[in-house]
Write a structure and sequence with these properties.
The chain has 143 residues and is α+β, with helices and mostly antiparallel strands. Helix content is 46%, strand content 18%. The protein is elongated. The two termini are 28 Å apart.
């Protein structure tokens, strides 16, 4: 299965934020949308970073609540690992596990096409396993 199948099921909406927005604004947006990461985009709408709840918690623990007025650009991850629509779910899952991150923007033809989370990947994989199990049961019952 491919990343395209996940986006087909969940949709391609991505909540974004500008690098100049404050960390407090990022916290608010994460809470409003009940999500774990925001894609950071520049003026040309290209991905310039990603900021996750984990990034914010680490910087809060390190520097205190005073950072909430600082820009997202000071905390965001700049080296964003992304994937394409045609990539397999297994390959993306391996990269997420190896890199210890939970959100991967999907880039197609140099534009943001969606985002997938580890939860999306797990949900998709469980669906595959359930379908395989049902097919095996049907096969056994008809054999």
């Amino acid at each position: 299965m491919t990343v395209k199948a996940i986006l087909k099921a969940k949709g391609s909406d991505v909540v974004t934020i500008e690098p100049s927005a404050t960390i407090a604004a990022a916290v608010k947006r994460l809470a409003e949308h009940r999500i774990g990461a925001l894609v950071v985009h520049g003026p040309d709408k290209r991905v310039v970073g990603i900021i996750s709840e984990r990034d914010i918690v680490f910087v809060l623990a390190e520097r205190g609540a005073g950072i909430l007025g600082d820009p997202v650009s000071q905390v965001m991850t700049r080296k964003v690992v992304s994937c394409g629509l045609a990539e397999t779910v297994s390959s993306v899952m391996e990269r997420m596990t190896a890199g210890k991150f939970r959100h991967v923007p999907v880039i197609e033809e140099n534009r943001l096409a969606g985002i997938i989370s580890i939860g999306d990947v797990v949900k998709h994989r469980l669906g595959e396993i359930e379908r395989e199990t049902a097919a095996l049961r049907d096969y056994i019952l008809t054999a």
